[in-house]
Design a protein that fits this description.
Layout: H1 2-16, H2 24-49, H3 57-75, H4 79-101, H5 107-126, H6 128-131, E1 137-138, E2 144-145, E3 149-150, H7 154-175, H8 179-189, H9 191-196, H10 201-227, E4 229-230, H11 237-250, H12 256-271, H13 279-293, H14 303-309
Helix pairs in contact: 2-7, 2-10, 2-11, 2-12, 3-4, 3-5, 3-10, 4-10, 8-10, 11-12, 11-13
């Protein structure tokens, strides 16, 4: 009974978290946490559920940000429609790159996604007429809630983003208990065996890949309308490395892990901001230590306690 109530309690705590402080700075950090958590959850579908390593996920994040910003500023499309369009644009690119690359297994897939991300970054950086190149786009309109108006405070924006995170987290939870989710895990563990059981491996991978890119595009749109300024750096390897850190350190293949990993990343990012580029060394050490000492992520540390409390829980398999 307690185990079933824990997710609802955690969701309630997240929803009410900004009410515990009046600090605008802390509200800003909370919004960044939720934005990165949504992005990390989307990458977790690819890394944790499909077992593929993508180095181009930040490109879909940037595509969503630019698509939403350009639509709202140049065509006057309402922000909510622009956010949906951002997901569709990122999903369309995800379908194309997934259709081409998901037939390839192993390191070649990661290299292809890295090349795709580099191409999108380069085009965005040099297409001055549309993206304004390295200068980026500023004065992006904020999210407007019908009947409320534009969201001007970080605390108000937090409630919008946390709703998206909770909705997608629940969708991931439900997915893993569905037939499609079991197909994802079967493909991750042993693709040839899954194919012999009648699972369309390519279609399953493509479905998960496109769904992940759609969510990444929406996260990018939310990011653009919150900070109101974007640059091509959103698609850089620095962001991609940060996403991998969030998923791996928190715990890939879980729902809580990427959210926890995003929290650790955002907190360290703020604490180590004064150290400039040297903070990347700390992040690299964190990733290395996590892979060596906690291969299942920080979320796995509480599982021994759960097994002591409930002997029916089976031990976690070795990586």
């Amino acid at each position: 009974m307690i185990r079933k109530a824990l997710p609802f309690a955690a969701a309630l705590v997240l929803a009410l978290l900004p009410l515990g402080t009046q600090s605008t700075y802390l509200h800003h950090v909370m919004v960044l946490w939720m934005l990165y958590a949504l992005l990390a959850l989307s990458l977790n579908v690819i890394i944790g559920y499909l077992g593929e390593l993508s180095f181009g996920h930040a490109a879909f994040f940037g595509l969503g940000a630019y698509a939403s910003a350009i639509l709202t500023m140049q065509t006057g499309v309402p922000v909510w429609l622009a956010l949906i369009a951002a997901g569709l644009v990122a999903g369309l690119f995800g379908f194309v790159i997934g259709y081409v690359s998901l037939r390839i297994v192993g390191p070649q897939f990661a290299i292809l996604t890295l090349g795709f991300g580099s191409i999108i970054y380069t085009v965005t950086n040099y297409w001055d007429d549309l993206t304004r190149g390295p200068m980026g786009i500023n004065n992006i309109p904020p999210v407007t809630v019908p009947g409320v108006g534009p969201l001007g405070e970080a605390r108000d924006y937090y409630f919008v983003v946390v709703a998206c995170v909770l909705a997608f987290a629940y969708a991931c939870h439900a997915l893993m208990r569905s037939r499609t989710g079991r197909a994802f895990l079967a493909v991750r563990e042993n693709a040839p065996l899954a194919a012999s059981l009648g699972i369309d491996v390519f279609r399953t991978k493509l479905l998960g890949f496109v769904a992940a890119t759609v969510v990444a595009g929406i996260a990018g749109g939310l990011y653009a309308h919150y900070l109101r300024v974007i640059t091509p750096e959103l698609m850089s390897l620095q962001y991609m490395a940060a996403l991998i850190i969030m998923v791996v350190v928190g715990g890939r293949g879980t729902v809580v892990g990427p959210i926890l990993g995003a929290l650790i990343y955002v907190v360290l990012l703020e604490v180590l901001r004064a150290f400039g580029p040297l903070r990347l060394i700390v992040f690299a050490a964190l990733l290395t230590g996590s892979v060596i000492f906690v291969p299942h992520g920080l979320v796995s540390l509480w599982r021994p306690w759960r097994r002591r409390a409930d002997p029916a829980i089976r031990p976690e398999p070795a990586p």
